[in-house]
Amino acid sequence: MKEDRQPPFHHHHRRLAAFTRRSFTKSTAYVVILILLSFALGYLSAASYHPRQHSQSPTISQTTIASATAAVTATELDHYRFRTQCADPVHPKLVRQTILDRVFNGTSPYASFPPPHISPLLRESRIKGWGSNGAVFGNLIRKVKPETIIEVGTFLGASAINMARLTRELGLKTQILCVDDFRGWPGFLDRFRELKMVNGDVMLMYQFMQNVVHVNSTESVLFVPFQTGTTLEKLCEWGVFGDLVEVDAGHDFHSAWIDINRAYKVLRPGGVMFGHDYFTAADYRGVRRAVNLFAKVNGFRVKVDGQHWVIDSA
Ligand SMILES: C[S@@+](CC[C@H](N)C(=O)[O-])C[C@H]1O[C@@H](n2cnc3c(N)ncnc32)[C@H](O)[C@@H]1O
């Protein structure tokens, strides 16, 4: 029996050895081909993706789109993920006191304004805005009759002061909250040479306050002098909502995208959100791309009123 079984065993062994040799040779060849291919593909994709390269019109290669899609899937759509829940809304009549308590230790920032060392550096009034008196403000205020307006991006207060006037004319008791770090943007003083800089402080906040004092609107216009991101998060946490929310801070896609998404969290359900520069070319029409993407993701229609975009959540 043993004798009988030996030849087949040897035969099998020889075949196995030959198969292994052949497979080894084959798989070695496959591995070599694969390595060569990945080098070629890696080289090609590296050649078509230059994140630091600047060009006038963005050209996005298929490889870039594919890797971006893979990355989005891998991070489980993190770019679209913003806080989903805010605190219960505080009553509109308590919004002002909430901000005074939370931001200003319970005291009005306008008390004893201007401080003596700042007073000589301010103009009685210095207002400059961009589309800040557009028809959209009156149109929306008449339509929404807001109790609370949140403005994201205020600068010298041109649009806030315009809204204060419009609400007053309609007999509304609207609280306008202005969110701005009052730093402007690097180099903005080139166009505002009359604004004084003190030890690197551009004093935008003081001139804005002076402008509000000048038109006697300190009761209706209050401000939160911090970064838009952290402030909108806090408003959400404190239950401070706006019936009307204007977004007009950073005008590049990413700033606008984040501001719009966070602003939406503090928009009262059924309220209206709007902003300037829907047609600006800056950052490859960054504001428009951000607004359109936001509307698409959330199922809203974008309306246009002059240079402004409007999203009505009703
Ligand atoms: C175009 S101006 C606002 C103009 C104003 N809405 C008007 O019509 O008169 C933009 C403002 O947004 C502010 N800003 C930009 N990015 C900001 C950020 N991340 N946090 C706080 N303020 C910001 C700047 O300081 C600047 O005052």
Automatic annotation (TrEMBL):
The chain crosses the membrane at residues 29-49. Keywords: Membrane, Transmembrane, Transmembrane helix. The keyword Zinc does not apply. InterPro entries: SAM-dependent_MTases_sf. Coiled coil: none annotated. Pfam families: Methyltransf_24 (PF13578). It comes from the Eukaryota. PANTHER family: S-ADENOSYL-L-METHIONINE-DEPENDENT METHYLTRANSFERASES SUPERFAMILY PROTEIN. This is S-adenosyl-L-methionine-dependent methyltransferase. It comes from Escallonia herrerae. The lineage of its organism: Eukaryota, Viridiplantae, Streptophyta, Embryophyta, Tracheophyta.
